[in-house]
Write a structure and sequence with these properties.
Elements (H helix, E strand, L loop, with lengths): L5 H14 L2 E3 L2 E3 L1 H4 L8 E5 L1 H5 L3 H18 L10 E10 L20 E8 L3 E8 L9 H19 L1
Parallel strand pairs: 3-4
Antiparallel strand pairs: 1-2, 4-5, 5-6
Helix pairs in contact: 4-5
């Protein structure tokens, strides 16, 4: 059996994290059975205090603004002033040093490209990791555009989960 490529391993880990699958009481539980979420929200908030504590200051504010804008857009059909506030906490943003595969590790079947990722949680009880293939030439890595793409991707996965 051939060893897993780095890409396959990362995608497997990301899918496991996104699925939110876990074990409780010795049995497998699905996220929908494990916890129920409100169907409508009165407002939205994004906590980036962990990113700021890591020294990311203005970048953390940028990530917060992107996530808040995407929350409002993605959950526009699920707003109701009687619902609770949807609060998400973003704890990590990772942009690969090798977007588009420039200089990355190559293995059988892999493209050597890197992955961008956002990690966080909703309601302080629904942890989630979203990973997105990074596509940008290494001479013009477009960190701002990649940050927007991976942050929006995280919010859209959240929408699917809850």
């Amino acid at each position: 059996m051939s060893p897993l490529s780095r890409r396959s391993l990362l995608k497997t880990l990301a899918c496991a994290g996104l699925a939110g699958a876990g074990f409780a009481g010795g049995g497998f539980i699905r996220p929908a059975q494990a916890q129920s979420f409100p169907q409508a929200f009165s407002s939205f908030a994004v906590d980036v205090s962990v990113l700021k504590a890591k020294g990311l200051g203005p970048y953390a504010d940028f990530v917060r603004d992107v996530a808040l804008d995407e929350l409002r857009r993605s959950f526009a059909d699920r707003t109701d002033p009687r619902g609770p506030r949807l609060v998400v906490r973003l704890t990590s943003v990772t942009l690969t040093a090798f977007p588009g595969g420039g200089g990355g590790y190559r293995r059988r079947g892999g493209d050597g490209g890197g992955h961008d990722a956002v990690e966080g949680e909703a309601f302080a009880r629904h942890p989630m990791l979203a990973v997105l293939d990074a596509h940008a030439p290494s001479v013009a890595p477009n960190e701002q555009g990649r940050t927007i793409a991976v942050t929006q991707h995280w919010v859209r996965w959240l929408r699917r989960q809850i």
